[in-house]
Every structure is written in structure tokens, then in C-alpha cells.
Amino acid sequence: MIKIVLANDRATVRDFFGEQWDKQSSKDELHKYGRFIEIKGEKKGFYAIVPVLNEKGWLRTLYFTEQLNAGLLMVLIDWIKEDAAQSGYQQLMVYSHNSSTDTLFQTWGFEKMNQNEPLSVDEEGNWWISAVELSRDVDKYC
Q1: Looking at residue 63, which CATH number applies to its domain?
Q2: Which of 27, 59, 79, 83 allows an S-S link to 94, with CB 3.0 to 4.6 Å?
Q3: Quick one: which of 49, 52, 48 has its CA closest to 17?
Q4: How many separate domains does the chain show?
Q5: Domain annotation covers residue 127
């Protein structure tokens, strides 16, 4: 069974990221907006959707453990988009800093933004955006 769980406990979030925690910026946003993806009771992923610009959310962090079955990625991104829609967002933005993640976001239905950057970030990369809407197709009880 897959569940989306609020990431309220700071120590749990820090422990989940392990060595990667020190590399994370804006840790307060991760605590405030973060969610764990649990599969059969085990935390396998984490994401945070931060509110920005008129009904848009920024998928600021998307992190999966190495044990996550790669076949679940498409399903999980659909769940994340559904969560964004349930939170009142109409669009979900994401920032990619390498060609591998560019390809993933394009595969996941995101479109490259060719306008001015909506937010300032430290790394060179590309902004992507996707419309999100509530769906009846997302089975919340996998």
C-alpha cells in the first residue's frame, strides 16, 4: 500500500536524507511542505511542493531511496501531481539542473518554460511546468 504522509518531525526528515541532508537548502521549507512516500510502511521517497506565483507550486525537492522500484516512478509522479491539485495548485513547476532530469520531466508530461525564470536559483538549469488537476484515475489504495 502506498501512502503520502506529512513530514512533520524534523529528526525523521533529517534521518531519511542521511548524508544528503547537509546538501539541502531552505530546510525550513522541507519541514513545512514536505511529504514522505511510504510503501508498505517504509519511507521510500520525499517531496516538497512550495507555494509560488498565483496558484503555482514548486516541486522543490524530489528524492527517492535507492531501494525504490523504478517502475513506480510514473505512478508516484501522478500522485505528486494529484497532491498538488488537492492543495489548490493549477500548475506545478520544477527546476532541473541536468539533462537526465530534463528527460525525466519531459517524460512525465512537463513542458520546458522558455520565458524568464520564475525564481532565482543558484545552479544553471531549466524550468519545467505541468498543469495539474484532480483526477479520478489515481488509485489511492495501491
Answers
A1: 3.40.630.30
A2: 59
A3: 48
A4: 1
A5: yes
Task: Measure CA 58 to chain center.
Answer: 8
Backbone CA torsion sign across 133, 120, 45, 43: negative
Mean pLDDT across 12-38: 83
Instruction: Tell me the percentage of the chain whose pLDDT exceeds 90.
Output: 26
Residue 82 lies in a domain: yes
**Separation of alpha carbons 127 and 121, rounded Å:** 10
The answer to whether residue 140 sits within a structural domain is: no
Q: In the chain, which residue ranges form alpha helices assigned H by DSSP?
A: 10-17, 27-33, 73-86, 99-107
Given a contact cutoff of 8 angstroms between Cβ atoms, the answer to whether 112 and 125 are in contact is no
Over the stretch 47-80, which tens digit does the pLDDT of each residue have?
999 998 788 999 988 888 877 777 777 788 888 9
Lookup: cell for 20: 544528503
Would you state the cell numbers that stand for residue 8, as one nine-digit string?
512533520
- Which residues form the domain of 9? 2-131
Q: What is the pLDDT of residues 70-106, one digit of tens each?
A: 777 778 888 899 999 999 999 999 988 888 888 888 9
